[in-house]
Specification:
- The complex is a heterodimer.
- By secondary structure, chain A is mostly beta strands.
- In chain A, 0% of the residues lie in helices and 53% in strands.
- Chain A has no helices and 11 strands.
- In chain A, the strands form 2 sheets. In chain A, strands 2, 4, 5, 6, 9, 10 and 11 form a 7-stranded mixed beta sheet that branches. In chain A, strands 1-3-8-7 form a 4-stranded antiparallel beta sheet, with no helix packed on it.
- The termini of chain A are far apart.
- The relative contact order of chain A is 0.33.
- By secondary structure, chain B is mainly β.
- Chain B has no helices and 11 strands.
- Chain B has strands spanning 5-7, 10-14, 19-24, 31-37, 43-50, 55-58, 61-66, 71-76, 85-95, 98-103, 107-112.
- Chain B is globular and about 45 Å long.
- The model of chain B has no long low-confidence stretch (mean pLDDT 91).
- The chains are: A mainly beta, B mainly beta.
- The A-B interface holds A 31, 33, 35, 40-45, 48, 50, 56, 58-59, 90, 92, 94, 96-99, 101-104 and B 1-2, 4, 30-31, 33, 41-43, 45, 48, 50, 88, 90, 92, 96, 98-106.
Chain lengths: 110, 113
């Protein structure tokens, strides 16, 4: 099984550009999450979803939007990228108590 | 704000020594998890301890949980250079009806050969 797959793995954006990060899971998990990790920090929750068609804000949601149109996919969008959004982004899915993380997307906004 | 806070922020030891990292948290939890992250890599799940458990072992890892003090510790025995990584505690709690995993800032462990 692939588990949690994130695409792309690396991306460089110019300030003001938009992009979408894709997270796909094949474990039929209800819950999915997007985190960001900055240097020397732990992961901070951006948005999460408790099921298909539902999304909710996490700790640091500003500047991001998400969609969960299909149970297996959770998309994270940046409408107008800012240098402050330079970070490593991790997606995760879970069933109660068991989390699986993707390998991360390294995003640089110049 | 982040739920878990690890202590110390950085730890440097010699190969063969034991490494102890502590984690404190603020709210009631379902379980507490420890993860390892090698530099520039993803997260590796190490161990999960449920709120009704006090101690758990996995190989060279020993985790304790004290819910009355809202704290946990991770002990790595007989450390190896390959244990060099950042270690994060994460609390799994139900907030607002939804289960979320909240991370601390991590402890950076360096094991010198």
């Amino acid at each position: 099984n692939a588990g949690v797959t994130q695409t792309p793995k690396f991306r460089v954006l110019k300030t003001g550009q938009s992009m979408t990060l894709l997270c796909a899971q094949d474990m039929n998990h209800e819950y999915m999450y997007w985190y960001r990790q900055d240097p020397g920090m732990g992961l901070r929750l951006i948005h999460y979803s408790v099921g298909e068609g539902t999304t909710a804000k996490g700790e640091v949601p500003d500047g991001y939007n998400v969609s969960r149109l299909k149970k297996q996919n959770f998309l994270l969008g940046l409408e107008s990228a800012a240098p402050s959004q330079t970070s490593v982004y991790f997606c995760a899915s879970s069933y109660p108590g068991s989390y699986t993380f993707g390998s991360g997307t390294r995003l640089t906004v110049v | 704000s982040q739920q878990g806070e690890e202590d110390p922020q950085a730890l440097s030891i010699q190969e063969g020594e034991n490494a102890t990292m502590n984690c404190s948290y603020k709210t009631s939890i379902n379980n507490l998890q420890w993860y390892r992250q090698n530099s520039g890599r993803g997260l590796v799940h190490l161990i999960l301890i449920r709120s009704n458990e006090r101690e758990k072992h996995s190989g060279r890892l020993r985790v304790t949980l004290d819910t009355s003090k809202k704290s946990s510790s991770l002990l790595i025995t007989a450390s190896r250079a390959a244990d060099t990584a950042s270690y994060f505690c994460a609390t799994d709690a139900t907030q607002g009806g939804s289960e979320k995993l909240v991370f601390g800032k991590g402890t950076k462990l360096t094991v010198n050969p």
